[in-house]
Amino acid sequence: MAVTLTINGQRRDFDASPEMPLLWFLRDVAGLTGTKFGCAAGLCGACSVLMDGVRVFGCQTPVGDAVGKSITTIEGLTQQPLGKALVEAWNEVDVVQCGYCQPGQIVAAASLIATNPKPDDAAIDAGMSGNICRCGTYPRIRAAIHRAAQIHAGEPA
Amino acid sequence: MTGTTRRDVLIGSGLFSAALMVPVAFGSSRSRAAGAPSLAGNTWLGVDAQGRVTLALPKTEMGQGILTTITMIAAEELAVRPVDVVVSIPDGDSVRFAPIDQGTGGSTSVREVWQPLREAGARARIALVNAGARQWGVPAAECDAHDGAVVHRPSGKVLAYAALVAAAAAAPLPTEAPVRPASAYAVIGKSHRRLDGDAKARGVAEYGIDVVVPGMKYAAISVSPIFGGKLAGVDEAAARAVQGVTGVIRGADVVYVVGDNTWAVRQGITAAKAQWTADAASTGTQQAGVIAAVAAALDKPGFVAATSGDLEAARVGAAHRFSATYTQPFLAHATMEPANCVAHVHDGQCEIWTGSQIPGDARKAAAKRLGLPLDKVTLHNRLMGGGFGRRLEADMVERCVDLAKQVPFPVKLIWSREEDMSHDWYRPAYADHIDIAIGADGKIAAWEHKIAGSSIMARLLGPAFKGVDDDAVEGAITPIYPARARKVTFQQQESLVPTSWWRGVGPLRSAFVMESAIDEVAHQVGADPIAFRLAHIEDPRARAVLEQARDKAGWGTAVAPGVGRGVAVIHLWDTYMAAVAEVTVDKDHQIAVKTVTVVVDCGQAVNPSGVAAQIDSGIIFGTAGALYGEVTIANGRVEQSNFHDYRVLRMNEAPVIHTTLIDNHEKPGGMGEPPNAVIFPALANAVFAATGKRLRNLPLQKGLEAG
User: Fold this and answer.
1) Hey, where are the domains in chain A?
2) Which residues in A lie closer than 8 A to residue B503 (C-beta atoms)?
3) Angle at which helices B529-536 and B505-524 pack, to 10 degrees?
4) What are phi and psi of A93, to 5 degrees?
């Protein structure tokens, strides 16, 4: 059936079941593969997207719940100032390894910084522990979030 | 001994003609399709007509950063910036890269490519320099390559590679082409940002799971959850009733549901409610029985992997005698990207898209499965969302082509996390017995090490296997502790649980046992664990990493109650590494790893930032494995299914890691596995220091809770 969704600022009609999780809708129907499948159980955060600016797990969010909301994926986030600051910090700190979890990490970090512009380590632990990285990039993610907060606030390194 | 190692198996043998290279950009805005090189340094490194250095990556990128590392080495020899190299991820091809192979494991990549890559680069560079010298009519000795151009030093004249590549290619390649000396390095040894980092961070890098082929359908898979089980029934009507499901396909031990999107086929596979049958041997396979059989195998004589001196004679008059048995469980890989593959079988040929650590061998496996000539099968390799050895197996490709040959369209097969977790090829469960005698002179008089467990090499070698698994005994037969007499044996003990490579495999197992045992001996004789090690280690590089780790970790300073420091030192994969882990254990016996101090001597570090990243990676991956990692079997099934019951480390649990790199120009060592191997014993030793409890059976958290 037809659903109207706003994804990365664009309002479009799609043919999809309202029960379909946003994860599979984004990847298979909308063609936005930056949102990753990791567990489909809300355990790993690889499918994180922003819904009205707040991180949700795409695997746990039916398309029907997104109707009338603004969905931002990694592809859209990285066109915005906060997303650009995060990618810049990620590159500066050289965070990425396999990279598969990183779009989800960056979406979670955006949600964190949006509500807490200068998160300390404890706030980072609390905001980021829903996202698993098997390569062990956590130390560099932590450093990159501090750096992204600086960049976003317009502060020097 | 068979003399065959994991590295030999990975290299394999090229028996078929090469397929055409189909370059695949890795998704960065900077990547461009690589043109055919005009000037070929070898079959995978050259300079194209536009003067661009082109590199077909001879190893596979699973997160370890080898794309960047290898590009840096190429850039060094060809005097360009790493970002200027056009890198492609080539199709699976067993011939093109000979004598090395695309197979990526065993911490071998830099060690394998280091010499042939630099030699190929040097040949191409000197061919360009000679072409420039000929054009100017000056001695080649007065010319050098710099920033993508040849420079005549006395006159300052410059010619870009683009202007010289045709002339260089027309002349025979130089036979004398010395590689750049370390003193001249402009790229090697200087930290470089990962070349694939930006594309991955922005979500535009393409992994196997992201591949979309026109006309493609999606599929879900359910394999018998019981080892050796067969499909007994499927509610096909229920599966087909799901909107978007277009087909149900049965195999002997598998059912696939095909449809228009992943959501449809995931619902369909659940609705199919597959029924399975298995014999009593399968359904009767229990964790306790499997583990007991491995431990009991230690009582067999075993096959001798190494022996020197007279063990019994050396034990006579020993001042101290120590013996203990250690066990280590099955482990899953749990890569973030679950197993997946896209395949299209049509008109007597097959095209495959996946992320594989063995693209050449996976292509062969597909051809064999389909009964097609190898030249009719193409495997387009992609970036991998983690490997850790999981993608050294080709089962995802084999299962996908089994399906693809039955449907008239390309199909993307994705394993659910539960399917991935319960149908892994697990790190073998092992048991080790070690018996150490310290002589009256304080030296190690006798060292006996018996190893039992599943043999991965036996599976791969077939009849050529002669009893000793050379991977399983790696490290055990070359310890850093000299002994007057030594004996190491291996005894194979299989179960129905499939086993394979898991980041470190045999040496990882050996490191836990040997570094736990030496720690126990030190405590038994009342010595400081580091001082005791240093009293025995002769290798100066091993001593240096241990001494620096001791000093940087504040070893010997007071710690609060419940806090303990543990040490381990290894020389494995041509790398020396020492780690001091500091842990706290609370009143509920919960272990938290606060800091890990690592000192590494991996010879010439190509990319220091990449080396440090691998240390973060191995320490965190290994901490998860040592504290929590365990796959268990009940009634012939794996009990774990997802991240709720196969615990891995999260941000709030990650230790602070202090890394020191000893800078030298020795031959490069491997970096993918050493940090993972060093942390297991360091943590066990730290828990002992914190609690007085010696845990000889992994995982540590479970052992501590068991009391």
Assistant:
1) 2-73, 81-152
2) none
3) 110
4) -85, -10
CA distance B591 to chain A (A): 17
**B245 pLDDT higher than 90:** yes
Q: What is the pLDDT of residues A37-84, one digit of tens each?
A: 999 999 999 999 999 999 999 999 999 999 999 999 999 999 999 999
Q: Looking at beta carbons, which residues of chain A come within 8 Å of B243? A: 17
Closest approach of A37 to chain B, Cα-based (Å): 7
Is B648's CB within 8 Å of A132's CB? yes
Round to whole Å and give the CA distance between B473 and B484.
19
CB contact under 8 A, A29 and B261: yes
For the segment(s) B288-330+427-706, the CATH number from 3.60.15.10, 3.30.365.10, 3.10.180.10, 3.40.50.150 is 3.30.365.10
Using CA atoms, how far apart are residues B255 and B270, in angstroms rounded to an integer?
Answer: 11
CA distance A12 to A10: 6
Cα–Cα distance for residue pair B535/B37, rounded to 1 Å: 55
Three-state SS string over B288-352 comes to: HHHHHHHHHHCCCCCEEEEEECCHHHHHCCCCEEEEEEEEECEECCCCCCCCEEEEEEECCEEEE
Query: Going by CATH, does the domain composed of A81-152 fall within 1.10.150.120?
Result: yes
Rounded CA gap, B124 and B35, in Å?
16
Q: Nearest CB to A99: which of B200, B209, B653?
A: B200
Distance CA(B142)–CA(B133), nearest Å, equals 8
Predicted confidence (pLDDT) per residue in A73-128, tens digit: 999 999 999 999 999 999 999 999 999 999 999 999 999 999 999 999 999 999 99
Task: Report pLDDT digits (tens) over B587-605.
Answer: 999 999 999 999 999 999 9
For B127-168, the three-class secondary structure string (H helix, E strand, C coil) is HHHHHHHHHHCCCHHHEEEECCEEEECCCCEEEEHHHHHHHH
Which member of A90, A129, A140 has the closest CB to residue B616? Answer: A140
Q: Which of B204, B386, B609 sits opposite A100 (nearest CB)?
A: B386
Residues of chain B within CATH 3.30.365.10 domain(s) are 6-200, 208-278+339-414, 288-330+427-706
- Inter-chain contact A44–B336, Cβ cutoff 8 Å? yes
H-only helix segments in B137-257: 161-170, 197-201, 236-240
For B401-443, the DSSP string reads HHHHTTSSS-EEEE--HHHHHHT--BBPPEEEEEEEEE-TTSS
Of B417, B613, B651, the CB nearest to A97: B613
Residue B21 has pLDDT above 50, yes or no: no
Preceding peptide of A18 cis, ω within 30°: no
CB-CB contact of B648 with A134 (8 Å): yes
Chain B residues whose CB is inside 8 A of the A73 CB are 203
- pLDDT-based confidence at B35, cuts 50/70/90? low
Q: With cut-offs at 50, 70 and 90, classify the pLDDT of residue B1.
A: very low
* Chain B nearest CA to A14, separation (Å): 14
pLDDT for residue B14: 26
Rounded mean pLDDT of B1-10? 46
Burial class (CB in 10 A: 0-12, 13-18, 19+), B706: exposed
Residue B642 has its nearest CB partner, among A41, A73, A101, at A41
Architecture of the B208-278+339-414 domain? 2-Layer Sandwich (3.30)
The b-or-e profile of B21-34 (16+ CB within 10 A means b, else e) is bebbbbbbeebeeb
Q: What is the CATH number that goes with domain A2-73?
A: 3.10.20.30
Q: Determine the residue of chain A that is closest to B63 in CA distance.
A: A98
CATH of domain B6-200: 3.30.365.10
B297 min Cα distance to partner chain A (Å): 33
